[in-house]
Amino acid sequence: MIELRDYQADMMEDARAAMRSGIRRFMLVLPTGGGKTAVSTSIISETAARGNAALFLCHRMELLEQTEATFEKAGLDYGVVAAGRQYEAGKPVYIGSIETVRRRLRSLPNPDLIIVDECSHIVSRTWKQVVDAWPDAWRIGLTATPLRLSGEGFEGVFNLMVLGPSVRDLIEAGWLAGFKYYAPPGVDAAGLHTRYGDYVLSEAAALMDRPHITGDAIKHYRRLSDGKRAVIFCASVAHSMNVAEAFRSAGVPARHVDGTTPAGERRQALEGFRDGSILALTNVNIFAEGVDVPALETAILLRPTRSLAMYLQMVGRALRPQEGKTALILDHVGAAGMHGLPDEPRSWTLHGRLRGSRTGNSGEQMLAVSICEDCYAAYKPAAHCPYCGAATKPTRREIEQREGELEEIAKWEASAAARREQGAAQTFEELAELGRQRGYRNPAFWASKVISGRKRGKRK
C-alpha cells in the first residue's frame, strides 16, 4: 500500500465525500510534483477492493510506465492496454494508452471508474470518444493546471474540483523544491499570431531558432547552472535539434527527443539524463506534462507561450524535490512577466480563467515581477534583489505609472490653488481683475457669473 502524505489523505477523503454525495465527475487538482498519481492509486485500490473495475488513461509511454511503477508499489493486480504489450483479460484494473484503448473499445470490459491523467486533453475528439463510450462510469480527472491551453475551463465536463495545497504551500513544507528564477533579456513575441489561445508554434520557432538566442541560453546556463541537468523547452522539432547540437558544440552533453523518437531511444535518453551522462535534454512538449524527473535541476524556457497552463507545466518540471536541491529556471521568453512566478497565488475554478487574477490565461495584463539589471534575477517587487543585493531600479512601466500619478497630483494641486485664489476675491472688481490676470476673453462677464453663482448658493 502507498502511504499518503497528510494533504494527500485530505484529498482522498474529499474524493470519498464527493463520491458518497453522488458526484460522478470531478477533478483532483494538485501542483506538478504533488503526487496526483499516489492519490488516484489509493482511490483505485479502494475501488478494486469493492470488486469494481477501474481504468487509468495516459497519453504517453513515459506516463504509463510511471503509473505502472506506482501500481506495483501499491500491490495492485493490473493489466496494460498499450501497443506492444500483451493484453491479459480478467484484470480488475487496467492502465491504458489512450490511442490503443480507442482502437480496442469494443473488446475491453466496462470500467466502473475511469481516471484521466493530465485531463486537460479530455475535450479532444479522441479522449471524448473513449470516455463517452462508458457514460455510466465514475470519472476523475487529474491535473496541475485546470485550464485548457485556450484558457477555457471544464464546466460541463466535471462537476467539482478537489483542490490540494498551492505550490508555495508545498515548497514551504518541503514537498517541492525551492527555486531561483532568472529572466535574461530575451525576445519580443508581441508580433506573433495566436491560435487556440497560444502562439502559432511555427512563428515562435522562427523567432527563437536563431544562433544568438541559443548562444545566450548557453552563456547563461554556463554562468548559472554549469554541470547541472537541464530540460530545455523548444518551439519545434527543428528548433530542439538545433539547440541540442549547439549545446553539444559548446561541450555540454545534450540530446533531443520528440513525439516521433522511438520509445527505446526516449527511455535511453531519460536514463542518461538520470545518471548524468546527458546534461541537457531538448524537447517539444514531451517533458511538459507528467514525466517525473527529480534529477532535473534546471528548466530553460526557449518556447514563448501565452498559455498559463503550458507555462506552469514547464516550470513545474524543475520543482520536483531532491535532497539539497534548489531548482533554477532560466526564462528567455519573458514568461514570468506574463504569467507571474511559479508560486504566484492562483485561485482555480471550473470556469477556466483565473478568478481574482490580474491576468487571464493569455496574460493581457503584466504581473508585478521585478528583473534585476545586474544578475537578471526575477522576483516579487522589493527594494533590493534577493539574489545579488543590487538596488531595484524602477521599470519603464513603473516610471510611466509614477509620472502619471505625479501629473494627476499636479493637476489637482493647481486646481485647488485656483479655487482658493477665486475664493479670496470677494468683490466684482477683485474678480474682474483676477479674470484679467488669467487672460480670460471677457473678465467682467466671468466675474458677474461668479457673483451670481454665489448669490444662488446663499439662497439655497
Can you describe this structure?
By secondary structure, the protein is of the alpha/beta class. The chain folds into 3 domains: 6-165, P-loop containing nucleotide triphosphate hydrolases (Rossmann fold, 3-Layer(aba) Sandwich); 170-344 and 363-393, Rossmann fold, CATH 3.40.50.300; 425-459, no CATH class. It has helices at 6-20, 36-49, 61-74, 98-103, 125-131, 167-173, 201-208, 211-225, 237-249, 263-275, 308-316, 335-339, 396-424, 428-437, 443-459; strands at 25-29, 54-58, 78-81, 93-97, 113-116, 138-143, 160-163, 178-182, 194-195, 198-199, 230-233, 254-257, 280-283, 298-301, 326-331, 370-371, 378-379. Strands 3-4-2-5-6-1-7 form a 7-stranded parallel β-sheet. Strands 8-15-14-11-13-12 form a 6-stranded parallel β-sheet, with helices on both faces. Helix 10 (263-275) links the parallel strand 12 and strand 13. The model is unreliable at 355-365 and 397-406 (pLDDT under 50).
For this entry, give a set of tags.
460 residues, alpha/beta, Rossmann fold, 3 domains, seven-stranded parallel sheet, six-stranded parallel sheet, 15 helices, 40% helix, globular
